[in-house]
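Dear support,

I submitted the protein below through the web form. The confirmation email said the job was done, but the results page showed an empty box. After a refresh the structure appeared. I'm attaching both so you can tell me whether what I see now is the final result or a partial one.
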Amino acid sequence: MEENFYLIQKELEWLNDFIQTRIERYFNPDSKRKIPTPIDLEDSFYGRFIYENELSFEERVVLALILAVEVAPDILDVFLTKNKLYDTPFTEFGGERGDGGFVPTVQTALFLLAGDNKVEYIKALKFFEPQAKLFSSNILEFENFDSSKSLIRNKLSLSKNTLHLLLYAEALPQQYSLNFPATLQTTNYEWEDLVLPEYTMEHLKELDMWLKHSKTLLEDWHMSKSISQGYKALFYGSSGTGKTLTASLLGKKFNKAVYRIDLSQVVSKYIGETEKNLEKVFKIAEKEDWILFFDEADSLFGKRTQVSSSNDKYANQETAYLLQRIEECPNLIILATNLKDNFDDAFLRRFQSIIYFPLPDEEERLRLWKNGFSKEADLKNLDLEYLASRYELSGANIINVIRMASLIAIDNGTNEIKQEDVIMGIRREKYKEGKII
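What the results page shows now:
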């Protein structure tokens, strides 16, 4: 880590020399001062980031420029120099003057890359197009660009994730927001804690094998031309049967972040907003090799028999967009629903795996009861076999009952779990489902 900090410091010293050289050559065309050669970043994380993202010399300059805003803003003070003739800032420097100092714009970067050479200036504009690597790789934040402004007047800023990654060599978990409608899924459970029927576990081995061996299959066996790079799975079954937990455990097992998108919440009434919000999720997911978990999938992909309103029309457009994006995505993508019958056969054929998550049977319910309670709990007066045989509950229902009964015991100043408290909790779970026992 210390070596990474040291080399970032050297990189910013190189940037400072670069800026001073560009300004001198701009105001003194006869200057013999040469643009400094980039430093050797050796085997630092910062250096690997530049190499792995295949950043060009120009893109490296822009990255260092924006990093300076966060780490060494004093380097940019030279851009605050005023034109003595007009007592105004030099327009060719671009930028904005904030309380924290100089904030570079696209024009600032163009000045560094091209000086007063208009041919090079025009060439450098390509680095700031929406599809350019600095934006498509989520290194810079394009979404903050104001389309009402000229391109060159827009401020440049590093994404929070890139800044954290460059400084500390670890990804910063993305936070749910209107612009990023996905939530990181984590779990304290282990794969061995998963209680599912044998046939469900067998089907899950297909996903396990894909995550283990997809690179070998696609690259070493040269199968990328004939099969899709990604893997698409549908999890279906009643609520609380382990669909979300299984997705989280797959990520934990293979050290991949799992991001959950609730499609019932993400579909926007505003035209185009769904596509815009989800596109950012897909781009980062592809770069970081996340597993994407789409919950409540039938809210967008359910059968549509006719278009009766403009809302139906736009919903169909959103469906078409997301279908195409899922097809193109090289990641493992899991869609979850309570009812598989909500999807037509043409849609189901898009999946490599369709996996059923049933309600647990009596034996599985007994395992859930036994494994769910704390080791600190006294269960001597609890008939777990009776509970497992008498009450049909999902895994989530059982955990909710265990939580309530345990809290009642703690509140009573004891560690004894009482049968009547557990049964009361079961009644409440059933009542939530509209059932009375």
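Response: this is the final, complete result; the empty box was a page-load delay. Strands lie at 82-83, 88-89, 96-98, 101-103, 183-185, 231-236, 258-262, 291-295, 332-337, 353-356.
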